[in-house]
Fold this protein.
Amino acid sequence: MGAVSAAPEATRTVVVVLFCALLTATLPTVAAAKDLCLTITSGIGNPPLIVLKAFTTPGKGKCKPVAGWVAATTDIVEGAACSWSNGTGFTLGLHRHSLGCDDTEYTFTLSLPALTGGVTERDSSTAGTPAVGCGLGTAKAEKCSAPIVPIP
């Protein structure tokens, strides 16, 4: 009788192990996704650190929406990332939403795999006045290292 009762225990153990393996395999990968940190390295005064959440480069010739925030602020960014058809880089178009009336637009052109390139910064209208300026600079991107200050 002891051998008969051991068989259901072994079966139960196998079922539990298989269930745990299936559960682990189907968990969302967003939790493991890395954020991308964009840094303007020259040409634009007082450059922000922009964090794009769970960023992955789109496939060749493809675009996808992106979103994140500007570190140490309550500003959010949203826009699109489009990979070049030849796979050598991508362009990011971002709009920074600031508390108040000042918004900023950024266009990053970054090469792959170096993740370096250029950036254009354009200050949007302030309370109905025309744009106040445009700047050119260089930029780099890298997977964010922990800890990055989350949205305040």
Q: What stands out?
A: Confidence is low (pLDDT under 50) at residues 14-33.
